[in-house]
Design brief:
By secondary structure, the chain is an alpha/beta fold. The protein has helices at residues 31-34, 39-44, 48-76, 97-101, 135-138, 141-148, 160-173, 190-203, 210-215, 224-227, and strands at residues 22-27, 79-85, 126-130, 152-158, 177-181, 185-186, 206-208. Strands 1, 2, 3, 4, 5, 6 and 7 form a 7-stranded parallel β-sheet that branches. α7 (160-173) runs parallel beside α8.
Length: 228
């Protein structure tokens, strides 16, 4: 991969970010796939050791990092948008073929469809339900972002190599500058996480961290306590 770096330009694409042109997309941070004992992972994988890396990363790194990002966004008027897996029908007949094959069905209004309490949406923040991997392919998010005047998207959540990657690629294809704070995303294994970020960071997005990302914002009156 190092021998191919010269083919890509995004690695050095580091402009300042305007708060009124930026939105954070929080991907699938719901009970269904981020809480121990819930959802498809609990049903399919009975050996807790297999998922220890994933859940430990969510609890010890991803949630605190998203909380820090959310605090900054809410204090400074940066748009926050949640996407989550949730069927439109009780029997899930509206799901994508891939979700049907994978037996991914989150019934509307259930606990598994809720965003986890630690980073739950505030009043007036947008929450979009999707029935496939991609939020751009299954919701009107592009229409919403355009109406909001958004040019930059910061993508967070799970899984790095699945729904997050789909969101990043689609956002780039739709003409947005995309940023991924590394500690706000995760996959079932470290290898899958790193491979995905290597691909995305060399072609579709700027892979960074929360502190560096916040320093790039071009705005007045940034809350100094958030940047510490």
């Amino acid at each position: 991969m190092n021998k191919l770096k010269h083919l890509y330009g995004n690695r050095h694409h580091t402009p300042e970010i305007r708060k009124d042109e930026t939105a954070v997309i929080i991907t699938d941070m719901q009970y269904f796939d981020t809480k121990r004992g819930f959802g498809i992972l609990a049903e399919m994988i009975k050996d807790d050791d297999i998922l220890s890396y994933y859940y430990d990363r969510i609890e010890q790194m991803i949630i605190p990092s998203i909380q820090k990002l959310l605090q900054f966004c809410r204090q400074n008027g940066v748009e926050v948008i949640y996407s989550k897996i949730e069927s439109l029908t009780a029997d899930g007949r509206d799901r994508s073929l891939s979700h049907k094959r994978l037996n991914i069905h989150v019934k509307k209004g259930t606990k598994e469809a809720e965003i986890i309490d630690e980073i739950a949406p505030k009043d007036n923040e947008i929450v979009l339900s999707k029935t496939a991997s991609g939020v751009f392919g299954t919701t009107n998010i592009d229409y919403i972002l355009k109406n909001l005047g958004i040019k930059n998207v910061i993508v967070t959540g799970v899984l790095t190599n699945e729904c997050v990657e789909n969101c990043v690629r689609s956002a780039a294809d739709h003409g947005y500058d995309v940023y991924i704070p590394e500690e706000t995303v995760g996959a079932l294994t470290e290898e899958l996480h790193e491979y995905s970020l290597t691909t995305l960071g060399n072609a579709y997005a700027t892979v960074t961290d929360v502190d560096e990302l916040l320093r790039r914002f071009n705005m007045d009156n940034i809350g100094s306590d958030v940047l510490k």
